[in-house]
Amino acid sequence: MTPPVRLRLWTVLPLFAAGALAAVLLAPTVGSTPISLARAFDRAVPWAENVDAQIFFVARLPRVLAAALVGAALAASGVVLQALLRNPLATPFTLGVSSGAALGAMLVIAAGLDMGTLGLSSVPLASFAGSLVATAIVYWLARSQRRGLSTNVLLLAGVTLNSFFSALILFVQYLADLTQAFRTVRWLMGDLDVGGYGAIVAALPLMVLSFATFAVLARSLNLLSLGADAAAARGVDVVRAERLAFLSASLATGAAVSLAGPIGFIGIIVPHLVRLLVGADHRVVLPASACFGAAFLIGCDLVARTALAPLEIPVGIVTAMIGGPFFLWQLVRHS
Amino acid sequence: MRASALLHAADLTFAYDATRPVLAGVSLEVTRGAIVGILGPNGSGKTTLLGVLGGTRRPTGGTITLDGRPLASFSRRQLATRIAVVPQETHLAFEYTVLEMVLMGRHPHLGLFEVEGPADVATARDALAAVQAAHLEDRDFMTLSGGEKQRVVIAAALAQATDVLLLDEPTSSLDLGAQLDIAQLLGRLNAERGVTIVVSTHDLALASGICRELVLLRHGRVVAAGPTAAVLSSENVRALYDVDADVHVHAATGHLVVVPLHRTP
User: How many CB pairs under 8 A join A and B?
Assistant: First the structure.
């Protein structure tokens, strides 16, 4: 009589975690110069002479870690927003966070204010600020005095804000000169080349805060999918749970987008596949999606930088080109 | 207030906007072990009253006490260990199995990061057995029939291990056989487990068959309240639904039978 959730937590999660870890360790060995994992971790060879270690840790690992962090954040945020909106078709970008982030980045790039200080470029900072502004607007609109967040208003406000910001983005691109316009378009396709550990370290506290909140919310998210009243009747503080879910998912999404641009598809395809594999319990789905999302984006980025090498394909194009058909195939197979 | 009152409501008012109150001064008393039926036409405030009694809607005015303690002084989680609610219909956004659904009833009994243990699973299976749905345990909830769904949701409420069970029109979308199943189930839960039940319904057979007391609600006010035999009369049926009806005692069961004749002119 082993409880199903306990069993799944102990069997499924180690597998998913091992998969994500394997992706983090193996992906950096692949590239224009093949390197050996054993040699990269060989402490007997001094750092200055260990080319494999230099390529592994300096050239490739930051990019792989960025992919892991962004993939995990987008997949987990997708899970949380789908539970909050009681809609499996919601994505991390449904509620306007990413278009706010994009507008922030566009403004800085187009105004020629793209500069770096202390290892942090102004583009991710502006983009993160944009995501906070979008979050604040949607949150303020959907807040009702009596009962938490209105999920209908959340959806409508998010979708409207998305098209409003998209119009502003097009306007900014229209006004920008050709070089800047190209750079803004390139930013929108997603890029995991974060150029070092600085940006990752900056994003990490935001991610950790969001993931801790996800962990606290996991069981309540199961109950929220029964509807707000039914969740309340089973002891969920719905107002608090909905606010925390929206704010933490927006924070994680904002941090992910400011790190790598708006990389689509992960936030909807990964949660969906994971639910097919492990069931719907959010205590399993959330961590499993984070691991799967990390491994999936690492894999896509590997394809992006090796498939047409030395030409690099923007990673957002790869996620959609791999993710789209795969998702449709799964959909047909299970219907 | 009598000492035996488990749930006591006095002069409850509720309004989404001040010009159209949904509840306009409702008082009622639910004693431990009672089965109370709430009858009333659509829009009479039955669902709102259940929401207020269950603590998920805060009344605009009036007081409710549970065991003499104001409902508002309970935390959401404490209250969920005392009162369980079965809504009219349950739709899920994701595919949970029947056992997972029932285990969700254990939520208020678990700590923040606590995962259901063998004792919780035993409670859930016991609840499923009580509603004769043990064989459905591994089924996907969304693939069940309406009657099976309603029994599983009642099992989830039982797994919540509360004193009071509030049900909102539990038989409204069910066929005759499933309606009878639910009525008998509620009667048995009350007799065998001592569950106190408050049930809103349009189903007069359910009301006369299992409810020992009735509260008749119209336009957010109590039209009549008391023992079923006294309250379920042709006069009250007319006052409640604007329908002329014959009310007989059914010889074999002793239940009242309401035969609607025509709209009151």
Answer: 98
Distance between B146 CA and the closest CA of chain A, angstroms: 16
Distance CA A249, CA A243 (A): 10
* Minimum-distance CB partner of B90 among A9, A215, A230: A230
β-bridge partners, B225: B215
CB A35 within 8 A of CB A52: yes
Q: What is the pLDDT of residue B35?
A: 95
Is residue A10 over pLDDT 90? no
ipTM: 0.89
- At A208-223, the pLDDT tens digits run 999 999 999 999 999 9
Set out the domains of chain A in order of their start, with CATH numbers.
29-334 (1.10.3470.10)
What is the distance between the alpha carbons of residues A288 and A294, in angstroms, rounded to a whole number?
10
> According to CATH, where is 3.40.50.300 located in chain B?
1-82+166-265
* Pick from B93, B99, B110: CB nearest A86: B93
> Nearest-CA residue of chain B relative to A4?
B100
Contact criterion met (CB < 8 Å) for A4 and B97:
yes
**Angstroms from A229 CA to nearest CA on chain B:** 7
Considering only CB atoms, B107 lies closest to which of A1, A229, A235, namely: A235
The amino acid at B48: T
The CATH class for the domain spanning B1-82+166-265 reads: alpha beta
Give the pTM: 0.91
Query: In terms of CA atoms, which chain B residue is nearest residue A10?
Result: B115
Give the residue from chain B lying closest to A271, CA to CA: B94
